[in-house]
Amino acid sequence: MNILHVSCSPRGPASESSRLARNIIERLLNREPSALVVTRLVSGENLPHVDGSYATSQQSTADVSEGGSLALSDQLIAEVEQADVLVISTPMHNFSLPSALKAWIDHVARVRRTFTISAQGKTALLPDRPVFIAIASGGRFSGERARQPDYLTPYLRDVLNMIGLHDLRLFSVQGTAMGPQAIDEARNQADEALHAHFASSRHA
């Protein structure tokens, strides 16, 4: 089994989303100890945005340069194609996704490569596989104590569905800006949710 971890937090391994992702990956490895884990860091300066050649390729079937961000796009798409399980760890920034994750999505969600467009709409080209999404948020965006909007999870569902990834499992650590006690509570809730998920399902 191949596991691809897309890490999006500017805080790197110290972030709550990364901690949650490590918990997920550890549970996956407990089931499949021989699994290969590939980590793709997309935060900070690790992943450039798409360039002009990429943009031109999306508007025309004409040949364009295979260099620049098109070559990077091919590499990122290949990583997804080779993964049996995808783990995305991300913070919520201003109710939505960080620009680093958006940049990765722009590279991976590519017309004629991971989806096609016809008069009937968009058709996915990637086969489905489990996608674990580990989210950290300073406020609370779900549950009875939610106090802020959530544009992150609906967007991720829609854009990942568009390229063929429907089997999404979302876990979160919420309220991280509310002090150590709130963080401990959020961690415990996330750990309990993970335990329940892996205990109740035979397959990741």
What does this molecule look like?
The protein has 204 residues and is α/β, with parallel strands linked by helices. It has a single domain, classed as Flavodoxin domain (Rossmann fold). Helix content is 40%, strand content 20%. It has 6 helices and 7 strands; from the N terminus they run E-H-E-H-H-E-H-E-E-E-H-E-H. It has a 5-stranded parallel beta sheet with strand order 2-1-3-6-7, with helices on both faces. The protein has a two-stranded antiparallel ribbon with strand order 4-5. Helix 1 runs parallel beside helix 6. The radius of gyration is 17 Å and the shape is globular. The chain starts with a strand and ends with a helix. The model has no long low-confidence stretch (mean pLDDT 92).
Let me know the average pLDDT.
92
Helix percentage: 40-55%
Distance between the termini: 11 Å
Q: Give the name of the CATH architecture.
A: 3-Layer(aba) Sandwich
> What top-tier CATH class fits best?
Alpha Beta
Q: What's the structural domain tally? A: 1
Q: Tags for this entry?
A:
7 strands, Rossmann fold, 204 residues, two-stranded antiparallel ribbon, single chain, alpha/beta
What layout of secondary structure does this protein have?
Blueprint (H helix, E strand, L loop, with lengths): L1 E6 L8 H16 L4 E6 L10 H8 L8 H15 L2 E7 L7 H10 L6 E4 L2 E4 L6 E7 L14 H12 L4 E7 L5 H21 L4
Parallel strand pairs: 1-2, 1-3, 3-6, 6-7
Antiparallel strand pairs: 4-5
Helix pairs in contact: 1-6
